[in-house]
Write a structure and sequence with these properties.
The complex is a heterodimer of chains A (253) and B (510). Chain A has 253 residues and is α/β, with parallel strands linked by helices. Chain A has seven helices and eleven strands. In chain A, helix 2 crosses helix 6 and helix 4 crosses helix 5. Classes of the chains: A alpha/beta (253), B alpha+beta (510). Bound molecules: flavin-adenine dinucleotide.
Chain lengths: 253, 510
Amino acid sequence: MARVLVGVKRVIDYAVKIRVKPDKSGVVTEGVKHSMNPFDEIAVEEAVKMKEKKLAAEVVAVSCGPSQAQETLRTALAMGADRAIHVEVSGAEYETLQPIHVSKILAKLAQDEKADIVILGKQAIDDDSNQTAQMVAGVLDWPQATYASKVEKKDGELHVTREIDGGLENIKVKLPAVLSADLRLNEPRYATLPNIMKAKKKPLKKVTAKDLGVDLAPRIQIISVEEPPVRQAGSIVGDVDTLVSKLKESGHV
Amino acid sequence: MRKATSNVLHSVTQRHWPLKIRTAKYSTPPLSKDTYKIKRGNFASLTDKDINVFEGIVGKTRMLTDVSDVEAYNVDWLHSVRGSSQCVLKPKTTEEVSAILKHCNERRLAVCPQGGNTGLAGGSNPVFDEVVISTSLMNKIISFDSLSGVLTCQAGCVLEQLESYLLEQGFLMPLDLGAKGSCQIGGNVSTNAGGLRLVRYGSLHGTVLGIEAVLANGEVINCLNKMKKDNTGYHLKHLFIGSEGTLGLVTQVAIHCPVSPKSLNVAFLGLDSYEKVLEALKSSKKDLGEILSSCELMDRTSIQAVEENLKLRVPIKDCPFYMLIETSGSNSDHDEEKLSQFLENALEKNIIVDGIQASEPSRIKQLFEVRERMAEALLLDGFLYTYDVSLKPQDFYSIVPTTREHLKNVPGVMRVTGFGHFGDGNIHLNITSKEYSKEIMNNIEPFVYEWTSKFGGSVSAEHGIGLKKTGAVHFCKPPQAIQLMHQIKNVMDPNGIMNPYKVLPAINSA
Ligand SMILES: Cc1cc2nc3c(=O)[nH]c(=O)nc-3n(C[C@H](O)[C@H](O)[C@H](O)COP(=O)(O)OP(=O)(O)OC[C@H]3O[C@@H](n4cnc5c(N)ncnc54)[C@H](O)[C@@H]3O)c2cc1C
């Protein structure tokens, strides 16, 4: 039976208002609530479901990041992953960590752990890169099924429904393969208290990128991070005639 | 991009906050005067002359006289009462309110003050042709002092609007309720609304520091004190808090707001018996003490309504009881540790069988949504008979099975459920049916009131008396107290024009 590797990223919670640091070097993360990237929750859920359906034997969760990434891994364990690997990346290195680095790390771990399926979220809601799954497949030279909204295992192959522009696409991939989870793939479960207690006893291993032989040298330099432009206030006009003349004035009609 | 993604998440989880939606499936309720057999008081009827005077005060655009425009003001949120007002006025200032009331008083035209129209006791709608004075356009925030935490605003500010304004400044409204997207601070004050945070911040009698109100004769009573302490004479503001528009129209409010907590944690728990619920209450008070800010109870039947009618997901396994516990404090490590300890103990001792804990705003919102949208979910059954009683913790839940048993053979009853502000001993008993049934009603009342008063409870813990419960006041107040209420009413509103037929039993014959 297959072993599934899932990637989970710790991101600023989506209900938090994002603030840019005064020096424009990034966004404020200190004292800000974080949670698991929502698409990664979907990835974990899918992996756990595979295990429940006896399509997978083991689910291994991986997170790259500072020590708090372990909280995210504990959540994945409470959701049903069997063990976790924390790839410690912190400080300045974490600020310039990009999908290219993460995909190399994940590819190496997929090989080391003899994974048959890698499932990632289609994108992280902080940098919205949408590149990691594709690059993991590239590094490993495995088939990829991205934006999955349905996954079934038949005759040793995965039948995947993909969300594409204008509709759905059905494809088959041979194992080993890389998947990326789209929004409609499933509804992830919550980590319940009894399961959080149990998760405390599950193994969590710590490694560094160096251990895995991945070079984290920055490939980008952050020049400036800006707030989105503020929407201009509107004004209320008395009647249709004034509206039309105002629109004419501003050259809109 | 981030925003776009979260929008997707929002739409997929079907989150529509704030509460503003109204499905069209409800039928028009019968006229309240028929349902409650009320005789019209000795008031004048609206004439074109009055309309001209009103137009002179608020102008054409802030006066509604078209039947279809006025309709929404005649019917309540529950679709249970209906009046036949022909005129809605929307003043913007205290002076306009004063001019309107002065005219109405001289002409003996009855009026009905209305805020967000989310009241659950039928107090916010006319019974006959009362002129509706809507505070919706009195929505200016006047000042906020970040040192004292005192917010001063007009009565028509929507609670959620105040909440977001304060959040920006690092403060919080001392009250929170499911209707926050529509209800107004003037309505909250006039009903002395309780809600989800009362257990922590106390009632509006404590947090409201000052009130400006207009009496029936148009006189402006400025008691807009902003000091925490003020013992100069009778505490008149308290007369306006909870008097549901029968003593005057509240135009401005000064309210003391707490600093918003740096750390917020929520636990959603499943319990398998009421004894366990009592144990959980005891240990939450002991272990969480000063950081406990909400303690709500919901039964399985209430949860089912939310799951079935709103398709919301309840993230833990099916249990007879659920509790929602919120902590707020200034140090997240400290609070989380306390809460975790409490939860671990509760799990170990089998007080709770399942549960989840959240500190992420997105999760907290999802969990609260289950509780806050419960009334809306029940209303989607068709018709909702809702009772709001306070009882001692030991007796708190028994009213639900007792009522269920009592209604066992009454045709048409869909659900009998209970949920409420457990930490404050305030339960909402709810009965639903496809449509209004007189037989069901006659079986609930006065049964529920009698039962409550037998156990020393209050027949209206936070929703007020309004139109629907005037006949129940005597279960909780002796004749001498009711007499004194009448005398106060007569002094403040000698012509009885302010929200007649409400609050006091037979107010016009007194
Ligand atoms: C989903 C839902 C959840 C709720 N949860 C709670 C809860 O947890 N706790 C609670 O206590 N209540 C609750 N309520 C009841 C209701 O929302 C509150 O009583 C609320 O405070 C009413 O505010 P409003 O602006 O809608 O007032 P309205 O409904 O418009 O009016 C209520 C009463 O106050 C009078 N009034 C309104 N404005 C003024 C004014 N400026 N001057 C004088 N009189 C005025 C009206 O005449 C009427 O008698 C809930 C209601 C709903 C629909």
